[in-house]
Design brief:
Elements: H1 8-21, E1 31-35, E2 41-43, E3 59-61, E4 67-68, H2 77-86, E5 92-96, H3 99-105, H4 117-123, E6 126-129, H5 137-148, E7 153-156, E8 160-165, H6 169-193, H7 202-211, E9 219-220, H8 227-245, E10 255-261, E11 264-267, E12 283-286, E13 289-291, H9 300-309, E14 315-319, H10 325-328, H11 340-346, E15 349-352, H12 356-359, H13 361-367, E16 374-377, E17 381-386, H14 389-411, H15 421-452
Parallel strand pairs: 6-7, 9-13, 15-16
Antiparallel strand pairs: 1-2, 1-5, 2-3, 3-4, 5-8, 7-8, 10-11, 10-14, 11-12, 12-13, 14-17, 16-17
Helix pairs in contact: 1-6, 2-5, 3-6, 4-6, 9-13, 11-14
């Protein structure tokens, strides 16, 4: 879907619903605006059901100030107008009161965008806007001042945030979603790990970005789509959407890959908005060459090495889930000895230094295996591998949910009681027995299949 080709009013309705469905604003909170090519401003109305806005609910403001619409204008419309007047390059403005943004606003802090590259590269510059009463000229002037000084994000003291995009409303949401993920990591790292998160330096980010280029590889024209490939394409598109819904992926943050056969695998494309993922979006890599007309994620080179090294791995997911990422931006180790599920399914984790996705690809590929599924790259991401891509997604959910559980326990001032050594030994025996039975069942199934032939 070409989102930017939609009517401005429809764009506003769709993005407002996404914000509400993501639990990033209340049913009556937040507002959006778009400046079209003719200088008309389209803005969401006051109040109403922000999860169910309709095309005709959206107001149009003409250059002469005339307002066209059936609903009352939002109280904060003058702030949108002030931002757009201060920055002629801005095309869309987003305002929301997500719990994470409000949490920053009530301590008068700005987002720590240098937590990891996926955040640093999209977040832009931010600053605090001095407090003003909602709807007041003072607040409009204070917010506009932040944007006039070159910022794209304003944290309003004791309020929420405003984001301006020079590209589109969809891009404004992608920035907001990434920042919201980052704020959760920023605020929860001291809770989970006992200290402030570590940040990457500008020089590190520059070097990372110089390396994070689409791998140079030849191209090929696919000769149709086989059944297994189509199945994996559909599975990946479904998991992209679900990863957004389950807050494992931000709008554009995250990578999914699935093996097709011994010589080929699929990977998500560069810049994909996961909520709109389609099976045809996925990029086929075959014999080291890329499906023509498509641009794969830059992780393709690393994933190729992981698949080559580990024939048992059939799916890989990389992402920055907000609670689990607390352990990636700190020295604290991720603890798998919480419940049988985390111990049995995650099995093993290992940290790699920042930049290892380029400098230590062979080491990551050597480490990851069916019984060593989780690699944590400091200040970058988690990489989880499994025999099937669905299993990798399952492991990501367990990783993030377990981190959330620890967060709740610590905030409740309770003491965590881990699984004992004896219990871990018992679990290991049970897992081995189950794996043996599954292997025997699979062998019997294959033998029966051969006999039938």
């Amino acid at each position: 879907m070409k989102f930017d080709h939609l009517h401005p009013a429809d764009q506003i309705c769709q993005i407002m619903k996404r914000i509400y469905d993501r639990k990033e604003t209340t049913v009556s909170g937040g507002n959006l605006s778009i400046r079209d090519s003719e200088g008309h401003i389209w803005v969401s109305p006051s109040g109403g059901d922000k999860g169910n806005l309709q095309h005709d609910d959206v107001l149009e403001i003409l250059p002469d100030g005339t307002v066209i619409g059936t609903k009352p204008a939002s109280l904060e419309t003058p702030i949108h107008q002030a931002i757009l007047a201060a920055r002629q390059d801005i095309k869309a403005v987003l305002h929301a009161h997500s719990p994470a943004a409000v949490a920053l606003s009530i301590v008068h802090e700005t987002p720590q965008t240098m937590l990891y590259p996926a955040l640093a590269n999209i977040a832009g510059k931010s600053a605090l806007a001095v407090y003003g009463a909602p709807g007041s000229d003072t607040l409009a002037a204070n917010v506009a001042k932040v944007f006039k000084e070159g910022c794209d994000v304003a944290i309003l003291e004791n309020h929420g945030l405003f984001i301006g995009s020079t590209r589109s409303m969809k891009h404004a949401f992608e920035v907001f979603d990434a920042i919201d993920f980052g704020i959760r990591t920023q605020l929860n790292t001291p809770v989970l790990c006992g200290h402030e998160p570590s940040l990457i330096r500008e020089a590190q980010l520059k070097e990372y970005n110089e390396r994070a280029q689409v791998p140079v590889m030849g191209t090929f024209a696919p000769d149709g789509v086989g059944n297994e490939e189509q199945l994996q394409r559909e599975m990946m598109a479904m998991l992209c959407k679900r990863a957004c819904q389950k807050e494992i992926f931000s709008a554009t943050g995250g990578v999914i890959s699935a093996r097709v056969d011994g010589n080929s695998f699929l990977i998500t494309p560069q810049g994909l908005d996961h909520a709109y993922a389609d099976p045809d979006d996925m990029v086929l890599i075959q014999n080291g060459k890329c499906e023509e007309g498509k641009v794969p994620q830059f992780y393709a080179e690393l994933f190729q090495k992981i698949y080559d090294k580990n024939p048992g791995i059939g799916g890989i997911v990389a992402a920055n889930p907000p609670y689990a990422m607390c352990y990636a931006v700190s020295e604290t180790d991720y603890d798998i000895t919480l419940i049988p599920e985390s111990y049995n399914i995650l099995m093993s984790t290992k940290k790699f230094p920042f930049g290892s996705t380029f400098t230590k690809q062979d080491e990551i590929a050597e480490y990851l295996a069916v019984n060593r599924p989780v690699a944590i790259v400091e200040n970058e991401c988690y990489i989880i591998a499994s025999p099937a891509v669905f299993k990798s997604f399952d492991r990501f959910e367990i990783t993030e949910y377990s981190a959330k559980s620890v967060n709740m326990t610590i905030r409740g001032q309770k003491k965590i009681v881990n699984i004992t050594e004896e219990q871990m030994k018992e679990l290991s025996v049970r897992v081995k027995d189950r794996q043996k039975k599954l292997a025997e069942a699979e062998r019997s199934r294959m033998e029966s299949k051969i006999h039938k032939k």
